Queue: 4 jobs
Job 1
Amino acid sequence: MKAVDSASKFDQDRAGEYAQQSRIGLAGYDACHDLAACLLSVTLDSESEAQILVVGAGGTAQEIVAASKLAPNWKFTAVDPSEPMLQLSRESLASKGLEARTELHLGYVRDLRTEKKFDAATLIGVIHHLQGEDKKKEILDEIASKLKPGAPIILAGNRFDYASKPLFLSAWGELWRMNGVSKEEVESKRAKILHGADPLASNEAVIDLLGSAGFIEAEQFFSSLFWSAWIAKYNPNQSQ
């Protein structure tokens, strides 16, 4: 799948329902973002004037909202290829008085025209939408090129082939039913993720992918059915 195809999935209709839907389909959505902010805070020092690269920031901008509660001096550069999703982030940030601390860029990391290196990066809810390992490594390589040595990255997304975990897949469907979705709608959602996403095969595959882009010492800090999150740090001497 080309990068543009990944972006096109998040059209006006999907963007409009993203905030609610993500909190159901990705159980623990808010807790994951809160923990990510806490880990970055203790890694970078919440009193610092760090510059954070937020990749795939469209939708809720929850990475920025959570981190801003701990780190009043951090500035954010948010990148997303979907205009409807980026607009949602713009509205969310404005409602919380955070627009002055954030630069929003429509497009991809490779489109950023800046020489500055960032102190940290986040890639949350993106990796499983990219088809094939080459596309996944490409985005991590692009992020790595924008980071200072030793900078932490937060990576969160789905892993495991969905069909390989029937118990998890059934529980995921029940989670939707618990939130008022009919059985017929659940089946439609299940069919959509089985054919529309490409999660990494295992936890080990995630760590290997991070390592191939120069991210070392990866530690998993959150897991919820298919959804999981890691923190790692950039070592340019380890990239392949």
Job 2
Amino acid sequence: MRNRSAVDTIRGYFYQFDLSILSILQLGALEDSVEIECIEDIDIRTATEVTATQCKYYAKTEYNHSVIKDAVKHMVSHFKESLLGTKPEVSYSIKGHYASGQEKLDGGVDVNFLKKHFLTYSKGKSSSKITHYHHTDLGLSDADLGEFLKRLTIDVRAKEFDEQYREILDAIQKNVGATQFSAEYFYYNNALAVIRELSIQSAPADRTITKKEFLARINTSTVLFNEWFIEKKGKKAHLAALRKEYFTELNISPYERFFLVEVNPSCYVRSDLKDIFFQLAKKWAKLSEREPSPFCPYIYVHGVSSDELIALKTELILEDFKIIDGHDFQGADFSYRSIVRKATHGNEIKIKVLNTLLNIEQTVSAISTTRRIYQFYISNSYFDYDDPAVRHVKIQVENLSDIQSII
């Protein structure tokens, strides 16, 4: 069982990432921007001001002033430098979610409260502790601290983890007009990847993104196998959701379905790939005598050699698993007319094998009925078909077993 403290730490990271995503989505103008971990966790830049925001997520902890003391001291130090002109003038924000204790700030924060609870601290052993006054060390007057408080906002009743997550999905739907599924599995999944990438950049300029750029970068038609998204959802739940969205149909329509499967050479086992063939034929072929419009799926395997593909086909034929691949005799060129011929109960064609990416394009283009392409890839997408009439789903996976779980 995973250590509880580790789980809490991970949720804390997600909470900060989620707040970054939500902050971008809630920007008023497309040219407004967010900077990740610059002055604070999140710096929000609009046309008129910059707000440095630090967030805390302690769902099982009571709020105490000491929890945010260091954050306040750091902000006061930055404020001092802004008075000297060595740092930019900004606003400051602290957001936190706690199990209890929020009422300790219900009376508000004035200058005396600020000095007593946030800027006064002790150092040393119990017998020789020395009290320090951070504002005094910085040479700040009460008037200076009053000005600082005008720039400071503290919210110790920030949204709970799941509530904030739901707010993100709602904001995505409002910004891009997405469905609930695409908001989570396309846009939010991609958003996590973008925020993660920004957060590890060394230069502040490379950790900055406008709302316009952010919306463009998360708007892809690919389901990423993003390790952070998988950590949050759980791999089993992730695969199950993809199966429910794309591969659960009560009455399977006689569409022309193309399954593009990538093999990881480092862990390839022929029997695993054969199982994919069997599974596709079992679920996505209808060849009974009573079927008015019989059909079977197409498959393309990416990442195996021609010799291995021939060996696989040979095994399938020897096991009376009938396939065709668009080559009518030895040495014949590929013919889309050959491979698009109808599978029936009589000819027992269970699956149609496409040997090259060009064969896929030729075949898809030759068909005028409903077509769907399901591409499973490991690292990078390897096939694009730009036709709005063709549904093309791209799903990143780790291995063949993931594909089996999805289809």
Job 3
Amino acid sequence: MHEIEITEIPPLKPAEQTLLDMHSVLNVFNVLWSELTLIGLALADDPAHLREGQALIGRLVAGLRDPVASLEAARHIESHIAHVAAEIAESLAARPGAGRRPEVARSLASLESVFAVLRVRAREVLARAGRPELWLDMTVAELLSDFYEVLAAMQTGSHGRFGIVYNAAVQGPNDYYVDLRFESAVDDRLRLPLVFKDAMRDLVANARKYTAPGGQITAALFADHDRLRLAVRDTGRGIPMAELASVIDYGRRGSNVSDVRTMGGGFGLTKAFFVTKQFGGRFWIASELGHGTRVRIEIPLTPPAAAAS
């Protein structure tokens, strides 16, 4: 697998930088809009049936290019969720028993997962506001729990299209085998930038998107006294060799993935790169067509006295 180090990419415009910062929120909003479409089809055979909720999500997504509007959306996330939920409840009340239909029940379960993830993302956005270099002090178990919740939400949101397992012995043809290895040489505790956790999740989501069910995704993090080392690898379709350096650029995807339906903006790799550089780290990418992709990141650990927790 050919690996290169990425040291520089084209600079971003201010609106692009803001949208990059809100990438994980954008992903969740897009998933939420999709779920509202599915529920509308199931309840009324109309993808725009829940038009008020969809219009709200559309306005929130449009505001993600504005840092002030983004923070306002995060501060009022509970009222936004309540607005969407109320419209769904009203539609269900007008159709007794509809909520028990399998396709509706699946969407409602997925919606609860989406709401839970959205609340977490909003809290993280607000925590980073004014403190873009905020560091976290957490246990390995806490970080693993965060990722298990994210992966469970992905599985629920697939509506049965795929499963996620953590033991290769039970992997079926429509399952992803996910190997999470987070370790610390310092009392089983981790110090990492809050936004770096965001970038880690984006890389795992990318690996899932471009790997067919039945494949494997590995996310490995190791922390010692000096640095964080992250590797995310998949067994997906890979990236054409000639595009390996440019696929990191804002809004770029490999030319061989145009058929893949995604909920993001095409800049998960871009965000991971900029976060790496923000904290003085190094970024490598390796890929081989038909065999998958690997991203490696190293970030020096700021002395504890110099970092906020």
Job 4
Amino acid sequence: MEISVYSIQKNSDEFKEQILEYIKMSKKYAKINDTTIFNDKIAKAQAKSKDESLLAYDSIYEPKIKGFCIALDESGDMLDSKEFAQLISSKSQISFFIGGAYGLSGEFKKKMDRIVSLSRLTLAHKIAKLMLHEQIFRGLCINANHPYHK
């Protein structure tokens, strides 16, 4: 199994150590790729408008759509940990997408296999990404009958 997590955010070292620890612990179950994207195109678009930003995010993410695709969005489906584990079970390739400052466009979300919410609260990218990596590890453990999930 290969799981890719894509996020649009300015590079931040906050929670990097914890995320790397979850990636390391997940290695026995899946290959985890964590990609943070932020470039001049996104910075310029975000300085202009929400619409420009969403177009920039789409153009960055479109080539990365592969496998079973899941967008994170506060209006998505709320899952408990066992439902999340079921969602990622039996898939060989999964791609998670965390939107930029303006989220993800409606057109991009239509291309996803599933839209999931980690919380109805709006979360900072760094916190959402940490929570996602923890839930990926938890889901992998649930699927492997590992006692991490009690």
